[in-house]
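Good morning,

Attaching, inline, the backbone tokens for the sequence recovery test we're adding to the shared suite. The designed sequence is right after.
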């Protein structure tokens, strides 16, 4: 259930605060400018590294999201147990 919740199958996890859109736009702009300074081989390596970093961050976020729910449940159990 937690993975479905995280991946937006229950409630979209893609909804982020408004500042995220401007950060993404700024990253895209700077990334495009940076790529202009690279050789084609370097551009491919940069994109591969960026993809790997994004995938790793997504996995970490999922793990932390689930752990947060587990910690919250344990806290509730402790509170209600007293």
């Amino acid at each position: 259930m937690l993975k479905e919740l995280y991946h937006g199958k229950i409630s979209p996890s893609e909804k982020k605060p408004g500042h995220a859109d401007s950060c993404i736009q700024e990253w895209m702009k700077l990334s495009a400018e940076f790529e202009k300074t690279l050789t084609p081989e370097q551009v491919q390596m940069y994109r591969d590294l960026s993809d790997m970093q994004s995938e790793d961050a997504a996995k970490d976020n999922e793990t932390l999201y689930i752990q947060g729910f587990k910690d919250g449940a344990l806290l509730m159990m402790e509170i209600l147990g007293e």
